[in-house]
Amino acid sequence: MAGALEGIRVVDHSSVVMGPLAAQILGDMGADVIKVEHGKGDTNRHMGGGPLPGLSGIAMTVNRNKRSVSLDLKSPAGRDAFLRILGTADVLVTNVRPKAMRGLMLAYDDIATQFPRLVYCQAQGFRAGTPDEDRPAYDDIIQAATGMANFAQATTGHTSFVPSIIADKVSGMTIVQAVLAALLHRERTGLGQRVEVPMFDAVLAFNLAENLSRAVIPGQPSGYNRILMSTRGPHRTADGHVAIMPYEEKHWKAIFDHIGRSAELEEPWFADRARRTENAEYTYGRLAEVIATRSTSEWLQFAAENDVPVNAVPHLDEVIAEESLHRGMIVEREHPQAGPYRSVRPAIIMDGSPLTVRRDAPVVGEHTREILAEAGFGAEEIESMLSSGVAVQA
Fold it and tell me: Is the pTM of this model over 0.90?
């Protein structure tokens, strides 16, 4: 069955993870994604190690379901080729800063009249039209700017980054939402539009879903205290760790009954959910004491029998290696250059228009000739562009 976006062409003019991840998800949904890169390729091709130079593990994930064309957009011929490719597309995703796009004469205002049906998605660190629009911004910068880097202060006493490029990934998924909405708008009106996803805005909104909390009232402190506390799990057991989440009163009662301490639930801290949340540091401190009295296996069995949310705490390497832990999300594939590798299944399940992995990540410029031909260039024109360095074919 065809993917939901079959027949939609996306030009991925982005780098690192935010934009490429968004374009990858659109590709999983069935879109034909053309990745436009310079000669050395996207930065993500050299991040985090991998099987081949220029083909890192990160690139093999976020560049799947794409074809690669390598162009020098600073040259007039390269820019012209980009515009001709764009003329065959429905969506442009770029995270190049506004000033640089204006310098290339590829800002939305430069091309909107030429491509009225194009969904032009611009994503950068900070909102366009503000003094910060051209500030360099990567994941660490956005974690700091949005207050995320201070979350750990409440739980560990130290300011630190979340050990994940969460700002890039949240922004990437926000881009997908925005593009899909803009495509639906175009379906209804026939018109494309400029779409902007500032990383700062996307991540701050993400952070504040729960952490605005009491601060919805001016003058009150921010933070959802159940998560910003030192006693939040995973909890140590008698022989390891377990993540256990007594969410309902019946869960708490079952746990304290199990160890013969049910009388403690008559104390004021347990009166209702609001009281337990208000006194979360104390509440979960009590829970931590209780969990430490039994082994991990005993708590897992108890929780299964009493329908209490629970999970063991495996290392990520274990999750990747064991099918019972990754639940079929990781599959083996054969890459034409890199050989056998692990690939992550699309996280969305759709019965009528399934997401699929149809292409392995390309090397830089693997499809340059093919894509230029589709854009209407003749064989001699293509060879001239390749010989002059305007384009590169792997």
Answer: yes
